[in-house]
Amino acid sequence: MYSPDEQRRLFSLSKELLFSPQADLFSEPSAERAEDLRQVLLYHEWRYYVQNDPVISDFEYDQLYKQLEAIERQFPDLISSDSPTQRVGKDLVENAAQVQHLTPMLSLDNSYDAEDLQDFDESVKKLCKLDADTDIEYCVEPKYDGGTIVLVYENDRLVRAATRGNGYVGDEITANMRTLRTVPLKAAFSQKGITKVELRGEALIRKDIFEKINAARQEAGETVFANPRNAATGGLRMKDPKEAAERSLEAFIYQLGYAVDANGADVLGKFNSHDESIHLLESLSFKTPLAKTGVQQHLPATKTCKNIREVIEFCQAWQDYRDEYPYELDGMVVKVNSLELQEKCGFTSHHPRWAIAFKFKARQATTRLRDVEFQVGKTGAVTPVAKLEPVPLAGVTVQNVSLHNEEFIRSKDIRIGDQVLVERAGDVIPYIVKSLTELRTGAEKPVEYPKNCPVCQSVLVKPDDEAVWRCENAGCEAQVMARMIFHTSKAAMDIEGMGESTIERFYKLGWLHTIADIYRLDYDQIAKLEGFGEKSAANLMAAVEKAKQNPIQRLLHSLSIHHLGQKAGKLLAAEVNHVLDLKDWDLERYQLIKDVGPVLARNVFNFFQNEQNLELLRTMESLGVNMHQTAEDKKAELNADGPLFGKTILFTGTLSQMTREEAEKTATAAGASIASGVSKHLSILVVGEKAGSKLKKAQALGTVEIWNEQEFIEKTT
Ligand code: IVH
């Protein structure tokens, strides 16, 4: 265990070592630096492997590791047996039965860019004594980010499974691995003259299944897993195989490590290539990198590349694609295909010289929280924004990150001055995973939530059912501006050339007070502005004119009605002929639309009850903004030729001939819209078996047509 003081020291020492590159190795006191590096590496290994909770990125770890390797290469005398470079892997768990691997399972060397891969290719050629212009064939496959497993088959039966452990000795996990459907209990290796074989692979949890597992844990009040890797590595070691099975682990096998015949003689040499061995495994029904994942893939998971150029291209393509893959990957693995050449390359004590990992750009980094600012959004919500010391993360520099709301800050105990862990997941929005509380110095300050709007100073309020504080002054400058910026944005009215800076400029010039003003700009004046000119003014005019013709679903979305997103815009648009029809709707009418919940219903209802808003829309219409639902738009939404067009329908009870979902689909195809409850706006109630209160309510209303399932089928076919 490391004390908090010790952790702080090692963390800042790591950053120092990272940011003060090794000067001349001969002049620097290398022994001291090597010792520092050893200490910090051991610490980070403990955070990563034992605590499952790293505080620096893999990239930073690798940089430190490489520094130590460089010193040790230069001064072999400095190598100590406890150096992190002198062992293979690190995650031995106490109290589990341990087994020795038949061949050591080494690590992989890492590369991060095309240049690293070029260097690797060159070194392979040197080791194989080949000309620099020879093409080497490589297999490239995913670097799965799960828990490493080692399987042993003897006489065609699975006899043992283990974790990687320290590379030589791992934990026995046979009972758990037997529960995996992807691990064959029997495999006909004997057909190939193989009596005993050791396979390497990775146990993974598919990302969507992981989400479900976490959701269930959350509901049950259990702690959630940080990521699929943690859930997988934990799953490998479950005491009860049933629990292991509940994690839905899958095993991908990517390497044949050892194979002998009945006499104990090596048979690996019978294979020509890595490729060939993977195809054999696939034919014996193992899941390999060749496996189809059941998801439309734009790229194959694995490729045999003719040369390093193809390797680079393939790795880079995967970097952009990684998030679409159903499993977590942290890179690609490049392997020399020919086993003969592999043998020529050999191994270091740490990794094979014939393989290298191409690591994807880091998605986590640590940095310091300098300050928290409060921004007022289009609906008045006050959002705390973390101002970070700029840090590179997966290809961008991260500086501002939303902290969502007060509860988020409190629950994570985020303080100004903290070191924080930032992550960028697939959806590109970076977020703060946590504060590294053990690195605190005592100088950190709690975040003070403002009582007043930072822009207009009105007192902030927090509605009971919401997590955010709001500025309720609809005329607050920050809100007005944010609403205009949203109104013109791509997702809303999509007015090219009317971005944030232009809106701010026009606003300051006094040209914009409400969104209606966007449709009556004076383009002669605009042409005279510095940086504009005739052409830009004309382009802007064309963009505004085009936006006036937008379908009303866009307009509805653009009004910054809280909770009214693109989908709700569509749903509402499908129900009206003119936007202002909504002013005559009562609250109940909104709730009739399936997928429109009570909160959204209330917000839209309130908006259309407000005379100022109606005036705004009328002004916009007079300026040429389309308010009509065109027949085409409507037809695209609903089937206007269908027998149930214009009707609202609801299903209740158990249907016997189709599922509820099928029935709803049929109804929509017939032009009906699906209601969410019984009210006077409901046209038809279709009643299945065991119908209850809905039927009674509809009967009591007396205005609803009541059909049985058979009638529904007849009327829709
Ligand atoms: S080959 C002798 N191929 O990466 C080297 N390893 O640092 C054998 N890994 O924990 C490794 N996907 O479990 C290889 N397609 C792949 C891999 C892969 C993930 C993991 C492996 C080990 C680490 C090596």
Give the tags.
binds 2-(butylsulfanyl)adenosine, alpha+beta, Helix Hairpins, 717 residues, five-stranded mixed sheet, DNA polymerase, domain 1, 18% strand, 5 domains, five-stranded antiparallel sheet, single chain, globular, D-amino Acid Aminotransferase, Chain A, domain 1
Structure description:
With 717 residues, this protein is α+β, with helices and mostly antiparallel strands. The chain has five domains: 1-93, Helix Hairpins (Orthogonal Bundle), CATH 1.10.287.610; 113-359, D-amino Acid Aminotransferase, Chain A, domain 1; 495-548, DNA polymerase, domain 1; 552-639, DNA polymerase, domain 1, CATH 1.10.150; 642-716, Rossmann fold. The chain is 36% helix and 18% strand. It is built from 25 helices and 22 strands. The strands form six sheets. A five-stranded mixed sheet has the order 2-11-10-3-9. Strands 14-13-12-16-17 form a five-stranded antiparallel sheet. Strands 5-4-7-8 form a four-stranded antiparallel sheet. Strand 19 (648-652), helix 23 and strand 20 form a beta-alpha-beta unit. It is globular, with a radius of gyration of 32 Å. The model has no long low-confidence stretch (mean pLDDT 88).
